[in-house]
Amino acid sequence: MGKFLDYNPDQAYLLPPSVHDVLGPEHLCFFLRRVVGKLHLSVFRNEYGAEGGPAYAPEMLVSVWLYAYALSVTSSRRLEQRIREDLAFRYLAGGATPDHWTLNAFRRRHGKGLNDVFTQVLELARASGMGRLGHVAIDSTRIAANASRDRIDTEQALRDERARLRREIRRWQRQCDAEDPNEGAGMTVAPAVVAELERQLGELPARLERLQKSGRKKLSPSDPDSRFLRQRGGFVLGYTATLAVSEDHLIVAQGVSQETNDDEALLPMVDLVERQCGERPQQVSADSGFFSNDNLQGMEERNIDAYVPDNNMARALNRGGRIKQRAVHPAHRRMRRKLRDPAGRAIYARRKAIVEPVNGVLKEQRGMRRFRMRGLSKVAIEWTLANTAYNLTRLWRTTQPPQPPPETSSCIAALLLGFALQFSRFARQSSHRLFSSDINALQSIGL
């Protein structure tokens, strides 16, 4: 039928199409490939010895993982599938098809190298004019661990489980000692069941010792490094992820900790910004969770213009009203005077617009609401990958040529068309009036 285009998905290509022609030259995968080509990846190569067979190139695995986290693909099994099916992933993989075990092993193994990649990407972004340290906003967020909050070790729970397992083992042993242990329907004695119960019973002393050494009342057996952290709406079993973001929404420092309070992370994060960028930020803002007199004094010693309110001051800034509790420490009093000033309030108000959108993008768009791996060192690798991918997309956006949206161009075309119609109508009316005046003048002279 002439009304429809031909449809034949089984049609073979005479020549394979170019990836650049299909995706376009400004696609993110090509930009990421150019950036990774500029990085020094000797840290990855030094981890491999001469023994064994050839491994996949670090450039390929770094590229596919960064592109995966930019598209909220955090599972190694999903990444394996996307490499086989997605054109951009196939381009970055160079036609290779690593399995999920290889992909996940690379991510687990190279925490130091991926931290170095974050630093190099940050240096490239700062060399292009991004990440100026005029005003740096610091914020933290809670990210759930890959563990169930309902399966928690406590001393009482471990003792109860030990008693239950002993009863189960004794019951099976009595049944085995009977004259015919398999006489009842569905009562067949399986040695594997008894062995499994004995294995679980043997693990309990180590779990109890680990709980006592941690000094905590509750501990997750799946992820012992995770902690119960307070957040809006209750508690979450997870980690505290902290960000330092510049005014143009570039992440200049990041980290993951087990701390239940944010005040212990402020000064280390400021020092990390200085190490990553080679200079101190001029202004630093953070919410009331980072407030402490020691932090304020430390910021003054570093000659940093800080804006960190206490809980009472933050309530007054957000909701209005009077401050009930008086400040005693000199640094505390100076901070309150600074935040009472309209200029200081305006600087502190910019904190939400700087750092909170970045947290929102990472958690809502990039899927960083729950970690995939377990353990503090492993989840720190995931957080580093997510932040590096975010900075790459920010850098990629700045390199895109500005294009007017379709709505704007269509409006301009409509305005030009309307102006042309008005001009032609005015020209016709003017010529008609001119012709009529010429006829009247000729009649007046008798012609």
* Distance separating the two termini: 69 Å
Total count of strands: 6
Please, what is the average pLDDT?
A: 84
Which topology of the largest domain does CATH recognise? Nucleotidyltransferase, domain 5
Per DSSP, the total helix count is: 17
What is the number of domains? 3
Name of the CATH architecture of the largest domain: 2-Layer Sandwich
Poorly predicted ranges (pLDDT <50, ≥5 residues)?
A: 431-447
Radius of gyration: 33 Å
Order of H and E elements: HHHHHHHHEHHEEEHEHEHHHHH
> What summary fits the major beta sheet?
6 strands, mixed
Helix and strand composition category: alpha/beta
Q: What is the CATH top level name of the largest domain?
A: Alpha Beta
Approximate helicity band: 55-70%
Share in β-strands: 5-15%
Structure overview:
The protein is α/β, with parallel strands linked by helices and 447 residues long. The protein contains 17 helices and 6 strands. Strands 1, 2, 3, 4, 5 and 6 form a 6-stranded mixed beta sheet that branches. Helix 4 packs across helix 16, helix 5 (76-85) crosses helix 7 and helix 8 (111-127) runs parallel beside helix 16. It is flat, with a radius of gyration of 33 Å. Mean pLDDT is 84; it is low at 431-447.
